[in-house]
Amino acid sequence: MPIKVLDPQVVSQIAAGEVVERPASVVKELVENSLDASSSQISIEVKGGGVSLLRVMDNGVGIPSGEVELAFSRYTTSKIGNLADLESITSLGFRGEALPSIVAVAQIDIVTCASGESVGTYLSLNDGVVISKRSQGRSRGTTITVRNLFRKVPARLKFLKSPATENSHIANVVGQYALAFPEVKFTLSIDGKVTLRTQGSGRLIDSVTGVYGLEIAHNMMEIGDGEWEGGAVLSPPKVTGMVGSPAISRSSRGYLSFFINRRWVSSRLLAWAVEEAYHGLLPLDKHPVAIINISLPPEQVDVNIHPAKAEVKFQNERHVFSAVQKAVRQALIESIPVPKIEAPAIAYGAPAEPRELWRASPESGDRFTSLPLAPTPEVSLPMLRVLGQLLSSYIVAEGPDGLYLIDQHAAHERVLFEKINEQRARQKIEVQGLLQPVTFEVNPQQNEVLKSHYGSLAEFGFSIEPFGDRTYLVRAVPALLYKKDWVEMVREVLDSLSGGDWSESIAISMACHSAVRAGQALTDDEMRELIRQLEQVALPHTCPHGRPTMIHLGSGQLIREFGRS
Ligand code: ADP
Ligand code: MG
Fold it and tell me: Per residue in 540-552, pLDDT tens?
């Protein structure tokens, strides 16, 4: 085919496709416009998965009647004026692409009334062409209704998922903006039912309650206001928000939200920074709940690198990474107390639920702190005196404030985990040669993983080499695992991994397989030694999988339980 100029309608549909991928993209653009218009209330109505109808109604500044048509032409915006403005964008929109893109793939009508105008304007467009315009009464603000999305773009329509899936994408978009703008009152109704509502109180915790519900809200901790390490305020970025206690971890990253200068973005870098901060506090396959607000001077971030503005680029990536990681870590360390035995039901029955540790304290309003029993966070371990062993699994010890029960396996795992990491960092893993090389076989899937990871296993003291089809020969193993079931350990690591952090998984698995088991009787000396070692580790309160290593029955609690007070 010869080169020719595309028909303008084709051009506009191609361009629209970049911005409007699915109904949720329309919602995102319209809500961003409402937010840019300084609205304090935004309602979103959805029918038929967003294909039949999407309506966004706000009480923002509105569009002056003389400019309404202009808003629907391409590259028209009230938000930036020149190239310099592009360097420091403070609004969510700036390209003037959203409304023309939507109008290229749907029917739209708008009713808007700008500040200072006594009557509003109604405009309706079909296929990008204005079909009617008149005055219409309306209080200040804008209502945009989008109907029959993609009806003229069957290729796009075909790729949409079920209405339920599209609805869930829409709910996610609205939820994210509700988290980013706690001062705005959001209402989302889907097929006539309100599915999300926030109060617009300005407090993040209220938005978390509206979006994620009470259980999560009760387990959130506030991130400091960018101050740490002796109160030194670091240069930007400033990191605020909330993070979830390890007790409410999730199996996907869907509860990790990032807002850069209040723009919702996705960022692998930032997700990684947060997960780094949870190191050792969460099981390997779990992800935290976190709402991270990063503010920095607009010129230090480029928001103009992605068609839907969903990704950004930082001038100083490492700086942002470490600011986020530090702020989250700080919030976590400050609020992770030794688990307490708080109620008889827990003291005498079920194992202590980590979740019990996080409660709202009435006097601190929306801040969630540990219970009054632990007014100052305990980070290091108190001196403990071993009293004996319980059920061949728990060490009973006395500390300065009452009784401690230590899970011997979890505690030993923590000790070994840190030891292994430390030895590896110094490349000083103790290795034990096998008297006779051992062969072992793996399944095809494990084989693929193993082929590319001898190196990591070697770093931990395994000497493994291929020995025919899916068979491997092992000549040496880490000394810690010498008499243990290391074959099982290697298989477990190969199975648990698909692209996760190798070194971390190997270290955890090694610690788990070499640690003393529950059910194993220990002598007093062994128990004392374990406690002594636990006192020296950096994170004594949880095992590497994130479970608690100990629970605490305080002397105050004993006094109360025995009715002595
Ligand atoms: P952009 O947001 O990039 O400026 P849009 O196509 O989304 O481009 O919107 C074009 C213009 O229409 C905006 O710059 C703004 O002036 C106006 N506008 C759109 N939606 C609203 C709204 N809800 N309230 C007030 N003005 C709006
Ligand atoms: Mg816009």
Answer: 889 998 888 999 9
User: Is the Cβ atom of 79 under 6 angstroms away from ligand 1?
Assistant: yes
Please tell me whether residues 156 and 301 are part of one structural domain. Answer: no
pTM of the predicted model as reported, rounded to 2 decimal places: 0.64
What total of structural domains would you count in the chain? 3
Q: Looking at the chain, how many residues does it have?
A: 565
Residue type at 292 in one-letter notation = I
Domain housing 225: 219-335
Q: Is 120 in the pocket of ligand 1 (CB under 6 A)?
A: no
> Which residues are CB-neighbours of 421 under 8 A, at least 6 positions away?
507
CB atoms near residue 463 (< 10 Å): 16
Which residue minimizes the CA distance to atom 7 of ligand 1? 98
Rounded mean pLDDT of 27-56? 97
337 lines ligand 1 (CB under 6 A): no
pLDDT band at residue 132, thresholds of 50, 70 and 90? very high
Q: What is the per-residue pLDDT across 465-490, written as a single tens digit (0 to 9) for each?
A: 888 878 889 999 999 998 888 988 88
pLDDT tens-digit map of 505-516: 899 999 999 999
Nearest CA to ligand 1 atom 12: 71
198 lines ligand 1 (CB under 6 A): no
Share above pLDDT 90 across residues of the chain, in percent, rounded to a whole number: 46
Looking at the structure, tell me whether residues 395 and 540 fall in a common domain.
yes
Distance, CA of 315 to chain centre: 23
Which residues 6+ apart lie within 8 Å of 563 measured at CB?
A: none
Burial of 413 (0-12, 13-18, 19+ CB in 10 A): buried
Going by alpha carbons, the residue nearest to atom 17 of ligand 1 is 71
Of 407, 401, 344, which Cα lies nearest the Cα of 373?
401
Distance 88 CA to ligand 2 centre (A): 16
Closest CA to 456 of 419, 499, 515: 499
How far from 313 is each of 94, 276, 299, 308, 464, CA to CA, in Å? 17, 20, 11, 14, 42
Rounded average pLDDT over 238-249: 92
Last residue of a domain, one of 162, 195, 228: 195
Q: Which two three-digit tokens encode residue 520?
A: 């194993």
